């Protein structure tokens, strides 16, 4: 029996402070749903319905940390370049302009998880002094969640 061949992409989301919000209100809170919708919309616009259909076979946003803005996206090995291209072309999530930066691409979730854990810990240490108690609790919860991440 042959398993599905997937690629895992570790990305960093930058909220663009130089541009004004496209609508009124505060910047969007990063969630799996918001990120998934933005990537799917980008695939649809840039590659059409056929591209969207072929990419959705194993597409999933596996992990999102709303504090450090790191996320892991899974896609099939055959379609990962198309998903990667669409991720590069995402300009906004909701009404908030963003820039997505690919940090790592891996064939297994463990390697991507380890890299994400390392990046999350470094960002947490850099900003731990400026975080409130609630944000620190939420960050620790995200770190625990990524340690449990598997297929």
TrEMBL record:
Q: Does the keyword Metal-binding apply?
A: no
Q: Which residues form a coiled coil?
A: none
Per UniProt, the keywords (alphabetical) are:
Nucleus, tRNA processing
Cell location? Nucleus
Which InterPro entries has this protein been placed in?
Pop5/Rpp14/Rnp2-like, RNase_P/MRP_POP5, Rnp2-like_sf
Instruction: State the PANTHER family in the record.
Output: RIBONUCLEASE P PROTEIN SUBUNIT P14, RIBONUCLEASE P_MRP PROTEIN SUBUNIT POP5
What's this protein's function?
Answer: Component of ribonuclease P, a protein complex that generates mature tRNA molecules by cleaving their 5'-ends.
Q: Which family does it belong to?
A: Belongs to the eukaryotic/archaeal RNase P protein component 2 family.
Q: What is this protein called?
A: Ribonuclease P/MRP protein subunit POP5
């Amino acid at each position: 029996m042959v398993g599905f061949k997937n690629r895992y992409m570790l990305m960093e989301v930058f909220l663009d402070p130089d541009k004004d919000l496209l609508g009124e209100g505060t910047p969007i809170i990063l969630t799996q749903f918001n990120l998934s919708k933005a990537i799917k919309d980008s695939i649809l616009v840039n590659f059409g319905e056929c591209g969207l259909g072929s990419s959705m076979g194993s597409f999933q946003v596996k992990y999102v940390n709303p504090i450090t803005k790191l996320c892991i996206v899974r896609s099939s090995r055959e379609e990962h370049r198309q998903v990667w291209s669409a991720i590069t072309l995402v300009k906004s999530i909701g009404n908030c302009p963003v820039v997505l930066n690919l940090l790592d691409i891996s064939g297994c979730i463990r390697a991507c998880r380890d890299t994400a854990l390392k990046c999350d810990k470094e960002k947490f240490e850099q900003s731990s002094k400026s975080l409130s108690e609630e944000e620190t609790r939420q960050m620790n919860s995200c770190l625990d969640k990524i340690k449990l991440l598997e297929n």
